[in-house]
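Consider the record:
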Amino acid sequence: MTSPGTRADEEAEDLDVEEALALVKENPGPPHGDPDRTAAPAHATRHGHPGPHGAPDKQADSPHRATPWPAARATAERAARAAVRAARRTPLSTPLDAALGLTLAAPLAALTDLPSFDTSAMDGWAVAGPGPWTVRDEGVLAGHAEPAPLTDGEAVRIATGARIPLDTTAVLRTEHGRTDGKGRLQATRDVVHGQDIRLRGQECRSGDQLMPVGTLVTPAVLGLAAAAGYDTLTAVPRPRVDVLVLGDELLTEGRPRDGLIRDALGPMLPPWLRALGAEVRAVRRIGDDAEALHRAVTASGADLIVTTGGTAAGPVDHVHPVLSRVGAELLVDGVEVRPGHPMLLARLKDDQHLVGLPGNPLAAVSGLLTLAEPLLRTLAARPAPEPYTLPLRDAVHGHPYDTRLVPVVLRGDGAVPLHYNGPAMLRGIAAADALAVVPPGGSGPGQEAELLDLPWTTGGIGVCFT
């Protein structure tokens, strides 16, 4: 197992979605000496680096090298870019009902004019010439054949979305017309030529680009694609993930008892990973069995394996030994963040990685957002979220040396830190809108903090996955 921090690495550039998509489409193999392949975590340091205000090193003689939190996220992005080059992943033609949350690998171009014929924008009457008008007996409904042309002084009842008869001057809304004593239609407002008529090609012409490569497929994009004539979309395939839940102490049902606790991560991780764009293939409960873990890791064909627990150095923490046994390359071995310090990222093959999450639930969430999110986002060619900050309403205690991730709710123009933010607690994150990134030393009231949105608070795409 290769140790992290073998050389200093350059600052990670921002992921360019079109670059990632080009990698998917061009399918190049990893070039000789590819820096993404050999890069160690950026600026990896001993966990005992100097703290703020001249604080002394802690554990200065420890051989363990933890990675600063921003550098760990950048390392995960670089690892994913290298995996995209190596994997030769081909864009998929995906039915519309399976494309939600994918990224377009080809532009969405209109297959027809929209609308494809002149259509009524309102319920009312199609009228020709100045009023009053004689009204035809039959009406015009959406989905029916083209109606007969109108002549001056003639009107016909028309429904929203119906084809406009030839020689129509305007559509008179139902609420803007009345019938006089002679049965003729009178306008109660001025009639403007072309009013409430959606002309053919008003929205787009056939061949117009509607959405570019790299667009995230939202429900609205699905609707636009269907309206433009599509049955399938060309999209980047979802990264495939296997989840391995470790720990003999975990129950899958009932109340905690006899020193056993309920498994919170087994139910939580699959939907969270789907919200990050992944296809979760399997969730396996391994227990504290090194041989079973080894078999599961070596048998997996997933792009990413996610393990829970077992990343420290206790008597049943088998992740490191198994990674060493399979010859994995450790890219991140510990991160300077609380909770979640003992998380790790390893390269198993050129196109396969393992993210080891701590066993405590909130610490595992920290690992998801630190390592799994940038890796999966890059593999899926999703656009990176725009960073933003908000002032914290209350002071937040900081760790002397490490970044803290603290659940917050958004209220107006500020973020309110939540209680119950210990590594083993889910009560805070269950109520949260985001996680605040608190620097070493803490933040005072009113101080700006970077925020990490939770997937279901940024559009709800992920929660629609099944």
